[in-house]
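FW: tagging you since you asked about this chain on Friday. Here's the raw sequence from the shared folder, copied in full. Didn't touch anything.
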Amino acid sequence: MSDTASKSHGRKSITASLKPRSLMDGPERLARAWSAQVITLLPDAFPGILGHSLTGKALKDGLWQLDAIDLRQFGIGKHRNVDDTPAGGGAGMVLRADVMGRALDHALPRAPKGAPLVYLSPRGTPFTQAMARDWATRPGVTMICGRFEGLDQRVIDHYDIQEVSLGDFVLTGGDLAAQAMIDATVRLLPGVLGNESSTEEESFSDGLLEHPQYTRPAEWQGRKIPDVLMSGHHGEIAKWRRAMSEETTKGRRPDLWANFPKRND
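HL: got it, structure written out here
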């Protein structure tokens, strides 16, 4: 299988276009750039939102790169079939082991050493900020976007694939989940946000939800910014923010609060 089954991008101009994959045109692979490979039936869905804002700028600047690998290129017969009916009967279709196996045999030699291999599935381990931070320390990630009723289990077992879920709900495919997870990871790469300290106090960074944020005007619709935030007393501001983070987490996410390290109550 030739490299035409995959398109890579990085250090490309970002412009509005009816061809969303234009950012991925070009055969070059960027040395030392964080690399995401995505095996998908919808390659034209990429880079999608990832081609905009800070992730898009980082993509253009070569801080990371994206390969959208078209699973259909590895399909069977004239119509490039990628799925078949479930063994034992049942509704829907299942992605074939032989088709996905060929796609992985194409993708894995191109993946940087140490990059996780992930199948996006509702039954997987929930994706978390800690997982994003771990992936950001790796050289990249290879993702399989689920579709239909899922992927033949033999592929998951043979390649020892990690199953990861975006949440307790079902999507029509894993492509949106892949973009969300890549976004969460890329923003943690050095140089992407510009202000590295901005990730230190955000939600989930220390097991808590983020405190409320305010900006000008000082009063809006009769509501004022809390006085402590206007005091200039950084110690008191830090204490207030911590207290609000704890209060918000306790009220909205008792699951996180229950797992938060014991406080000095």
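FW: Strands lie at 6-9, 34-40, 64-70, 83-84, 94-95, 117-126, 140-145, 162-165, 219-220, 223-224.
HL: agreed, and The helical segments are 53-60, 97-107, 129-137, 153-158, 175-186, 234-252, 254-259.
FW: great, closing this out.
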